[in-house]
Amino acid sequence: MSIFEKLESEVRSYSRGWPTVFDRAQGSWLYSEDGKAYLDFFAGAGALNYGHNNPVLKKALIDYIERDGVTHALDMYTVAKRDFLEALDEVILRPRSMDYKVIFPGPGGANAVEAALKLARKVTGKESVINFTNAFHGMTLGALSVTGNSMKRGGAGIPLVHATPMPYDKYFDGAYPDFLYFERLLEDSGSGLNEPAAVIVETVQGEGGINAARLEWLQGLSELCERHDILLILDDVQMGCGRTGPFFSFEEAGIKPDMVCLSKSIGGYGLPLAITLIRPDLDVWSPGEHNGTFRGINPAFVTAAQALRTYWSDDELEKGTRAKGERVAAVFEELVARYPDTGLIAKGRGLARGLEFPSGEVAGKVCAAAFDRGLLMETSGPDGEVVKLLPALTTTDAEIKQGLDIITESVDAVLSH
């Protein structure tokens, strides 16, 4: 591994927790170059909801490449883009009675967020955006301005402005009514709060510690935005594409955001792709006003369309995700009961699950113990205190059990000493 340490920047992170060189991957498994198998309960931070090298998606991709299908086309019309848009409309949007136009903002989730923030300000003529405590929306300057983590914000090197944080659901442990502070500031002309263009929110804060907002809190937020003529941006980059069960993580709340940011698993195969969905009346861009070289990588359109048609034409994947998520939750609750004096908390929704420990040091030891036993998982939260699980939605029941057994052994090994 000396070449990595010699040439790669100190900013590398995941490789520090998993000190091995990986060579192959299939389904829910990664294999190091010496042949050791690792059960992957991280799935590319949620970019591999359908697993590594999914055979159905791989065939579509290979067939496209072998026929010399277009790879790079800026924002030109291509057969692959048309097929993706048709699949998105037929399989996802129309069955949900959703009326959105599609922006291709660039290859990653931060691009989707930046496009949404930029458009919200253009539409409203206002600068301020409301974000929430412990939010994470990306590492570019606009996305960082609405991110909560102080370490990540500090990396900007300049003041991050035009954003105001508000308390996320349960931030005060139910001591105050929902949105008491937020709405009071909005209605008080002496509060000093700049009238916001938009609110940006995650239904489940992944990087923030697997904090799952109650459905009624999300509904209340949507109603507040409507009352005060504020655009609602839903960041579904990590929690969309089925991670919580339904395709969109906000479906159960019955809300209709003005904009939706998607990336990670929208490409299906782990290829870079991001989209920002916007209400048609908000589409006030001038041609070329928001552009970029990699606004749509056509091989990703191919695997994205195949994933939508394969996994979202019925509700089987959604039902499986919910059932597997409940199995994880049950084991986590057993661990909470086993160690009542340690402050363990089970968190999450669907197959986005977390186990909160008293400190980041303890959570890190649990992840290290799991790695030694052949399981990949990561930490999240302000101090890395939450063990975070994002297994592929296609992970089998047997693999879920195998992973949970390793997690139980790892927790026991750390907390029993």
Automatic annotation (TrEMBL):
EC number annotated for this UniProt entry: 2.6.1.76
Cofactor: pyridoxal 5'-phosphate
One of the GO BP terms on file: ectoine biosynthetic process
Pathway note: Amine and polyamine biosynthesis; ectoine biosynthesis; L-ectoine from L-aspartate 4-semialdehyde: step 1/3
Pfam families: Aminotran_3
Top-level taxonomic group: Bacteria
GO molecular function: diaminobutyrate-2-oxoglutarate transaminase activity; diaminobutyrate-pyruvate transaminase activity; pyridoxal phosphate binding
Record key words, sorted: Aminotransferase, Pyridoxal phosphate, Transferase
SUPFAM superfamilies recorded: PLP-dependent transferases
Family label: Belongs to the class-III pyridoxal-phosphate-dependent aminotransferase family.
Stated name of the protein: Diaminobutyrate--2-oxoglutarate transaminase
